[in-house]
Design brief:
Layout lengths: L13 H11 L8 E5 L6 H11 L15 E5 L4 E6 L6 H6 L2 H6 L3 E6 L13 E8 L3 E6 L4
Parallel strand pairs: 1-4, 1-5, 3-4
Antiparallel strand pairs: 2-3, 5-6
Helix pairs in contact: 1-2
The structure holds adenosine-5'-triphosphate and magnesium ion (MG).
Adenosine-5'-triphosphate binds next to α1, α2 and β6.
Length: about 150
């Protein structure tokens, strides 16, 4: 698996998490799938916002797609798929909604929140990340093991 350079320091503000996303952006390429694990409110969407913004997507366009399953964004040079599987009842439901095909699209970068809800739909080349919540509102972004 490709090694991503991640911020080593603790991220004390949402802005720092956005910057972490911006740091990831130039390391990604078409076809990449980033799985973002972490508790409710950990900062997954905040990270996606920073990443998308660095690719030319207006930050305000990036919302948690919790109620839509998937959002699409047009970046300057690449499009993004932003999925949130928190509310799906089963992997079959996400599959029926076309998630597998969306994640197989080699022209886009895909970002998936709550990937644990449908791990079977994530391709083998998925890069798994975790946003940990630490005391005093700090966050740590690290590589996670695939489930
Ligand atoms: N150091 C920090 N980094 C990121 N967010 C922080 C930090 N401290 C506090 N917050 C707050 O935590 C929340 C993170 O929200 P965000 O929507 O990014 O989380 P999420 O992981 O996507 O949650 P969900 O599982 O509900 O989708 C925001 O309200 C933000 O203001
Ligand atoms: Mg979110």
């Amino acid at each position: 698996m490709r090694r991503l350079e991640l911020p080593q320091d603790l991220l004390t503000t949402p802005e720092a998490v956005r910057e972490a996303g911006a740091l990831l952006a130039p390391q990604l390429q078409p076809g990449d799938v980033l799985a973002l694990c972490g508790d409710l409110g950990a900062g997954k969407t905040t990270l996606v916002r920073g990443l998308a913004e660095a690719l030319g997507v207006p930050a305000e366009d990036v919302a948690s797609p919790t109620f839509a399953l998937v959002h699409f964004y047009h970046g300057r040079e690449i499009d993004l798929v932003h999925a949130d599987l928190y509310r799906i009842e089963s992997e079959a439901e996400a599959d029926a909604a076309g998630l597998r095909e969306m994640l197989d699209d080699e022209h886009v970068i895909a970002l998936v929140e709550w990937p644990e809800s449908a791990p079977g739909l994530l391709p083998p080349h998925t890069i798994w990340l975790r946003v940990d919540v630490l005391p005093a509102g700090r966050r740590l972004v690290r590589i996670a093991a695939a489930p």
